[in-house]
Amino acid sequence: MKNTILIIICNLALLFSMSQAQQSLVINEFMAENDNFLVDPTDNNFDDWIEIYNGSSNHINLNGYFLTDNPSLPTQWSFPEVTILPGGFLLIWADNDSGAFGLHTNFKLNKEGEFLGLYSKSGAVISAIDTLTFGHQIANVSYGRFPDGSSNWQSFITPTPGEANRAVQDVDSSAIIFDDTRIHDYELHFYISNWADSLTYYYEHGEEYMPAQLTYEGQALDSIGVRYKGNSSYMMARRTPKKPFKFKFDKYKKSQTFFDIKELNFSNCVKDPSFMREKIGYDIVRRYVPAPRAAYANIYIEGELIGFYVQVE
Questions:
Q1: How confident is the model at residue 10 (pLDDT cuts 50, 70, 90)?
Q2: pLDDT for 168
Q3: Hey, which CATH number is domain 22-171, 2.60.40.1260, 3.40.190.10, 3.20.20.140, 2.30.40.10?
Q4: CB burial readout 124-140, b (16+ within 10 A) else e
């Protein structure tokens, strides 16, 4: 009887210890497009990387833990016998080179965005420790938590692999939405069915905003202000759905921003079939004086593509 009780107590202690570790371990920072930021010393390549943070006051042995970029394969890559110190950071190279010396996963990160997960396994039981789905990443900019281990994610122009993440002022997260090497997709959902007539009415009677839900790269803002904008660009497109837009992110939630941006304009380029004049113009001016940034975007409303736009800060 005493032996049975002792076994139960030991098992409970083991489960408690694993539970504490699970609450403390997080994916703290990663870089999915390491262009020329940090060299992997094992092969002298600029490989992508993942950082794990131990927010507890205990040493945690990672034997029995796994990293994966596929939720259907939670045990895709297993940690070797390695211990992460209390308050410590552990760097893993995501380079599909698991045969190399050191910590190298058997998968790479996708800069266009994907799933990333940290799992543990005890017997036949697999548990999710920390998971996330991220969107498009920019070269040499990491994505991580600030403060370390918190639920707040942001981009870091000054990445800190293996160290504490730096303060917010180091970050210009808006660089993500002005990455002009890609087309940005914005999905709007209005709370009324006759949104087009209402936007037209509000524009022609004082440029009033309408509330809408915005989805971008899997991230959703449930209340932003949307209205039509412009003069000739609006009138020339008056009989088409592709009118110029203005998004105001803090219209209904005063502290709300979108990658640190409060407003965005979307030009329909109704007078420019090349879609290049406004973008090139801003790029040239920005070489000499402060000027808005510009990129390209698609706007979808209720799942339907409205058109291709020039997005202006």
A1: very low
A2: 55
A3: 2.60.40.1260
A4: eeeeebbebebbbbbeb
